[in-house]
Design goal:
membrane; Serine phosphatase RsbU regulator of sigma subunit; 10 helices; phosphatase activity; single chain; about 50% helix; transmembrane; 3 domains; alpha+beta; transmembrane helix
Amino acid sequence: MNVPTPPSPPQIRDIGTFRGLSFKQAVATLVIALGLGAASGVWELSADYQRMRLQVVESIKSDMALVRGTAVEAAYMLSHDLAGEVVSGLALDPIVAEVRLADNFGDVLGETHRPPGVTAFPALAERLFGDIAQHSLFLQTRSKDNASDVGKLELHLDPALMLNRYLDHVAASAASGVARTVILCLLVVAVFYGLITKPLLKIGLAVAKVNPARPGDSLIELPRRHEGDELGMLVRNVNALLAESQRGLDGRDTAEGALAALARNLELRVQERTHELEQQKAGVERANAELEKANRFISDGIRYASRIQTALLPDTTALDGAVAEFTIGWRPFDIVGGDYYWTGTFGDKTVVAVMDCTGHGVPGAFMTAVVSSILARILHHHGHDDPAVILALLNFLVKSALRQDRADAPADDGLDAAICVFDQKQGIATFAGANLPLMVWSDGHMKVIRGDRRSLGYRDSPPDATFASHEVPITPGAIFYLYTDGLIDHMGGPNCRLFGRKRLQETLGHLAGLPLDEQKEKLFATLDAWRGDQPCRDDMTFIAIRPKAI
């Protein structure tokens, strides 16, 4: 019986936490308001800068237009006195640095200079106001039909003085802007505290006083004037949570009482069951002892069968001197297996055979014993020259030995086989296969010779089945490979796929330049790496022969 534990209501033991939160909220609000005020001030300063530039340009143009008539008359009359009055009038503006009035011959009629202004930011002054410092006005007399130049009025403003004027204006604007911003921030903080922070503090203090053991007895009072806003919704939700927690606690107390009674009942039942189990345990231990004894007996028998099966395999030294190089890799799936191989010589001819019998383990080992006996009988009494004839006889005799040549045969077992006969004198290898291929590495290429697509000895195998023979010339350095399907049927790799014939051919092609024993070791290492954590699926047999070439 599972009883859900209700959530414990929140507890806040440090009232200073609320004050800390309130202070942080006020600071955050103040920072936001100051940021908005600063952004507004920057925008206003930019607008003031543009406005001041426009006012300066318009003022200078207005002044020059105002004195244009007098300047034309002074230039036309070549009057230094009138020119001095024009220049002095324009120089009354404090930001004017230089005024010059010249006639159309280049002679200066009037000129005034003022020492350059001093500023802490000369480069900034030139950048902000340098483009409006130079002003000029061509003086012309106009008649009814034509106009003629009589002189030129030039005026130069001081960028430093203009910058100082602008900085004075910026300082005044900044002071007033800061004052406005501070007042606005204080108002915002006060409103925020009154409308949000203070009610939240009251709600937080009320939550801190909730009794965890009886949360339903300490419902929070709804703040005034907040019945319809988010704070009111928060209080209602918290009160609903506290009430639901109280109901859960009451249910838990009831369930705990029921559980206690159930536990007492279960304890009695456990004691009774424990006594029964102790009696059963004694019986199981006796049965386990018998099973261990039987298991040891079976394991010893299988290990002894492995020694017998290994004895049935031919001695690999029988081919010493008959071939240039020879290696065998035989890995049964269990202690014993269903793969079998045979090697031997008959005069100038060498016979190598690989066979994959039905199943693996003990059943497969029994099949290899039958096949071993029948193959020896064929080779010594029926012939060893033609591998196709050997396969045909093997098919017929296995069917007969297992009584699978009758419709009511009790079983359906058989094998796949590949046999290769090397004729050293003729320099020719003859191959025949039943569902197993031959691979030949020669002249840097791998050639695959597939056997017939039929197996041997099964009930549906025709007793008069025939097989095709394939002749392959023995060239210097050529390597002949025979193997069972266990090599290519293992799962593994990044996508958990079969190793496959193509990958086997590529692997042996890369290893072809190595000694055969080293090829075998690296091939099985590659298969183990490919399989990784995947279990072994079948027996594996691999034979590589480098025959002597004529």
